[in-house]
Write a structure and sequence with these properties.
Helices cover 34% and strands 25% of the residues. It is α+β, with helices and mostly antiparallel strands. The structure holds (3R)-3-hydroxy-3-methyl-5-(phosphonooxy)pentanoic acid (PMV). This is diphosphomevalonate decarboxylase.
Length: 325
Amino acid sequence: MKATAIAHSNIAFIKYWGRKDEILRLPVNGSLSMNLSNLTTITTVEFNERLRKDVVTIKDGNNKKDPLRVITHLNRVRDLAGLSLRVKVVTQNSFPSSTGLSSSASGFAALTLAAVQAIGLHLSEKELSILSRQGSGSACRSIPNGFTEWVDGNTSQTSYAVSLYPPEYWDIVDVVVIVSNEKKVIPTSEGQKSAQSSSFYSKRISLINKKIKQCKKYLNKKDFVRFGSLIEKEALEMHAIMLTSSPPLIYWLPTTVLLMKKVMEWRGEGLLCYFTINTGQDIHIICQQKDTKFVVQKLQTIKEIKKIIINNPAKGAYLTENHLF
Ligand code: PMV
């Protein structure tokens, strides 16, 4: 009973920030995202009656990570299957964790698919998305293909992500810039809990459905300028909530701010690109395929940055025979 799955991380264009149910991880609002081709997690899961205890190995150079969250998620899978077999898990990311690149999205999507397959369950894409969501909210968007929407339901069964368009629908690119290997101090899961303490939060929520509708319209029309400017404002709005929460959350580093200003400057010079940022210092620069080389050329002049990872829209989570053990 062994299976291996690969899932891509995703970048949210309209963000999920704040939950109406902490246990089920039900978000206060819906969100929109794109899977990222070069930010992946591969996970092998084996349920085996010869194992005496659960063994989880997270191979990302950050062994401070708590495997308890992984075990809690595997218990959901064991409960669904009605089995109590011990499990061995090995998981590896292609990118750093805890710097703002949403490794928990790809991580919990890959873990869910591999575990469900290994234990012999047959779940639909919707059921996989619902299950992944309980491990990490944004993981539900890494299950379906390409450009996805997490629909905002009031129950576990109605809160899941669906594909809006396949990856080849639009050739936009996410140039991820790693600005530091420093790990964030407040994990995203903790940060989410303080969203509602910002006095700006209720205003954000009162306007969010309109914003989602607008963003879907620009996606539908492939209107890059309106789309880019909307998602950049959305990222700044989410960070405005973080900055004004109790305790305040400041995920940016000086290089993050430098890059935000650079993107605006390059746009002023005619290079169409927009930024978005999650919980961490790393920055996502969204551009059209034809402009990627110009964005990269500009970035290469900035000595403070550590690494660039170019991402195309990617498919959803899938199984592979390349087991890690
Ligand atoms: O799924 P979580 O708990 O890691 O939260 C994701 C939060 C953001 O990345 C900031 C926004 C989003 O929608 O991905």
